[in-house]
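Quick one, C-alpha cells below:
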C-alpha cells in the first residue's frame, strides 16, 4: 500500500513538472513570436520614417544644404531598413525594390547622391538620420515657414507621425525583448534548454529623441497621435 502511494505521488509530481515545463515552453514560444512581430513592425516604421524624410528632402521646401544632408542620411537609412522590412511603407506602392528606385529617382532629381550602405551599422545610420533631421528642423520659426510652403505642412506632419510611431514601436519591441530575456534566464529554461537554438533577442538602441520644433503629436496643428 505504501509503495502504491509513493508511485502515485511520484506520478503526480511528474505530471505537475511536465505541466510546468509545458507552460514555460509555451510562454517562451509566445514571447519569441511577439518579439519577431514587434521587430517587423519597427522595421516598417523605420522604413516609413526614412521614406518621408527623403520626400521632404526632395520636395524643394527646405534650404539646399539641409535638403542634401537630410536626403543623404534618409536614403542611407532607407536602404539599410529595407533589408529587414517585409513590406513597403503605407506611403509606398509596390515592393521594396520599387520604393528604393523611386526614392533614388527623387533624390537624383534634387541633385542628391546615395550613401554606400555595405556592412554599415543600422543603429548608427538611424541615429545619424535622427541627428540630421533634428539639426535641420531645430528652429521652430523655420519649421513654421516650411509648413507654409506648398505641400510642406503635409510632409512635416507625416514626418512627425512617422517619428512618433518609431518611438512607440521601439519601446514596445524593447519591452518584449527584456521580458523574453528574463524568462530565458530561468533555471528550468536553461537546464532543459527549452529555448532550443533560438538566438537571445537583443534590444534595438539608437537615437530617436523627439525634434522639439515639430511639436508633440496630438498638439493643435500637429500630427495626430497614433
Amino acid at each position: 500500500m505504501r509503495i502504491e502511494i509513493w508511485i502515485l505521488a511520484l506520478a503526480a509530481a511528474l505530471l505537475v513538472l511536465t505541466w510546468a515545463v509545458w507552460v514555460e515552453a509555451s510562454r517562451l514560444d509566445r514571447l519569441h513570436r511577439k518579439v519577431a512581430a514587434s521587430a517587423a513592425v519597427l522595421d516598417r516604421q523605420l522604413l516609413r520614417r526614412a521614406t518621408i524624410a527623403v520626400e521632404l528632402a526632395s520636395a524643394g521646401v527646405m534650404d539646399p544644404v539641409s535638403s542634401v544632408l537630410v536626403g543623404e542620411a534618409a536614403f542611407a537609412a532607407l536602404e539599410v531598413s529595407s533589408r529587414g522590412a517585409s513590406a513597403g511603407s503605407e506611403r509606398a506602392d509596390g515592393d521594396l525594390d520599387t520604393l528604393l528606385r523611386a526614392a533614388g529617382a527623387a533624390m537624383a532629381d534634387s541633385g542628391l547622391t546615395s550613401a554606400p550602405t555595405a556592412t554599415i551599422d543600422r543603429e548608427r545610420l538611424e541615429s545619424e538620420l535622427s541627428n540630421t533631421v533634428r539639426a535641420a528642423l531645430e528652429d521652430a520659426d523655420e519649421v513654421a515657414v516650411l509648413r507654409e510652403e506648398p505641400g510642406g505642412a503635409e510632409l512635416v506632419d507625416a514626418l512627425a507621425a512617422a517619428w512618433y510611431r518609431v518611438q512607440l514601436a521601439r519601446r514596445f519591441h524593447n519591452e518584449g525583448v527584456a521580458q523574453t530575456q528574463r524568462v530565458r534566464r530561468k533555471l528550468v529554461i536553461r537546464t532543459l534548454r527549452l529555448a532550443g537554438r533560438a538566438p537571445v533577442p537583443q534590444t534595438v538602441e539608437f537615437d530617436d529623441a523627439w525634434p522639439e520644433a515639430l511639436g508633440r503629436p496630438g498638439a493643435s496643428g500637429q500630427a495626430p497621435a497614433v
